[in-house]
Amino acid sequence: MKALSEEIHRAIRLMLRPLERAWLRYLSVPSFECVTRSRISKVDLFDLSRSIDAHVGSMAKSKEKAVAGVTSGLISLGQEVTWRAWHFGVPIHMTSRITEMVVPDYFVDEQVKGPFRSFRHVHEFLNDGEDTVMVDRIEFAAPLGPFGRIVEKLFLTRYLRRLIETRNRYLTTP
To answer: Which of 15, 10, 84, 45 is nearest to 173 (CA)?
Structure first.
């Protein structure tokens, strides 16, 4: 009898495994990485990446502007900036704070208030011979539960990746 009970439990676990994987995928935070190589020095690229003015220039298409907190110059550890931009034809406000920084190796900005359930962007800078490698790691979650998950999969991840790639081209083009 005990052997039969164990067999039934094993069969049920096997049947539920695909559902368990789907649930874990649902719970995982969407993320992506962009890697950009440049001849700009590590220190200069680090500073360009935290420049409010350079960010505004790189996001001209979405009319992004810094409207509160640090609104020009270089943002530093513990400081915040509030952005106003137009995405998908809708005005968006997002406040980010620099939560970690080791000059000139990396810094992290995280959404404090805004359209995402969560948003975290790690900016990392590495020397590779004469080049600097800039690695952007983004983790985010859309609001609206299951509908937000669908939006993430259908187009939001791709849209955010394009924004980061556009920004990086702007920063690394002489």
So the answer is: 45
> How crowded is the C-beta side of 148, counted as CA atoms within 13 Å?
15
Q: Is the pLDDT of residue 16 over 60?
A: yes
Token couple for 2 = 């005990």
Per-chain mean pLDDT for the chain: 91
Backbone dihedral angles phi then psi of residue 123, each to the nearest 5 degrees: -110, 115
From residue 77, alpha-carbon distances to 51, 60, 81, 110, 162 in Å are 13, 25, 12, 12, 26
Nearest alpha carbon to residue 131 among 42, 51, 71, 56: 42
Count, in order, helices (H) and strands (E) of the chain: 5, 7
Between the alpha carbon of residue 126 and those of residues 41, 47, 90, 123, 134, the distances in Å are: 10, 14, 36, 10, 7
Residue type, 148: G
pLDDT of 54-68, one tens digit each?
999 999 999 999 999
Is the pLDDT at 24 greater than 50? The verdict is no
β-sheet bridge partners, residue 31: 139
The HSE-up count of residue 79 (CA atoms within 13 Å, CB side) is 17
